[in-house]
Amino acid sequence: MALPSVTPDWAFERQHWRRGYFRVAGVDEAGRGAWAGPVTVAVVILPGLAQDYPFRDSKQLTAAQREAFAAEVRRVALAYAVEHAWPEEIDRLNILGATHAAARRALARLDPHPQALITDYLKLRTDLPLLAPPKADALSYSVAAASLLAKTERDKLMLELDGKYPGYGFAGHKGYGAPLHRAALRELGVSDVHRRSYAPIRALLEQPQSLFDEEEA
């Protein structure tokens, strides 16, 4: 698989650099739309050298490319951290609140600490200068690097959950609402790692026939 034609650059980072903020952290998440498993947030500070990297939005890459590039992120980064918000926290705070909480935990672990942030449209409450453009994972090297770590780390967790909760197919669909996942829920019911506040899971808990009805419709 060839690399995507749309490549990130340093345009957003340069906006911070011009203001004297050189430790810029990219922030991205994986798993916000999934029905099961955690939402995972990664933060990465790359060296401010304005050099080209092979990093791309993780959604545009094969699994092998993501793993290779994630390893390169870890090798070159000045600092990085990954944090997870599990279903209990998601159900308690809602998905946006849980994503923000995981991002704050990840940012607190960075050493050195960042001076400014770029997120993929995640409008964090922070005292740090923040840029939150849409599609930043495809446009910013720092956010693309974070997307690679978030995606690969979450995928590893979903593989582990596949072994702990056999039959749901987590290794394949990674907790998203794929037909195989729906079928497994009809057969096995809701597991401990499903997000009970999500409408399809909540409906299944309240009315087990709901997924059958949805499938027939």
TrEMBL record:
Enzyme type, top EC level? hydrolase
- The answer, when asked if Nuclease is one of the entry's keywords, is yes
Q: Where in the cell is it found?
A: Cytoplasm
Cofactor: how bound: Manganese or magnesium. Binds 1 divalent metal ion per monomer in the absence of substrate. May bind a second metal ion after substrate binding.
Pfam families, alphabetically?
RNase_HII
EC annotation? 3.1.26.4
- Cite the RNase H type-2 domain residue spans from the record: 22-210
So which cofactors does this thing need? Mn(2+); Mg(2+)
User: Which InterPro entries does its entry note?
Assistant: RNase_HII, RNase_HII/HIII, RNase_HII/HIII_dom, RNaseH-like_sf, RNaseH_sf
Which Gene3D superfamilies does UniProt cross-reference here? Ribonuclease H-like superfamily/Ribonuclease H (3.30.420.10)
Keywords, alphabetical: Cytoplasm, Endonuclease, Hydrolase, Manganese, Metal-binding, Nuclease
Q: Which reaction does it catalyse?
A: Endonucleolytic cleavage to 5'-phosphomonoester
The UniProt record lists the keyword Nuclease: yes
Residues binding a divalent metal cation, per UniProt: D28, E29, D120
Among the GO molecular function terms of this UniProt record, one is: RNA-DNA hybrid ribonuclease activity
Q: What's this chain's function?
A: Endonuclease that specifically degrades the RNA of RNA-DNA hybrids.
Family classification:
Belongs to the RNase HII family.
Tell me the protein's name: Ribonuclease
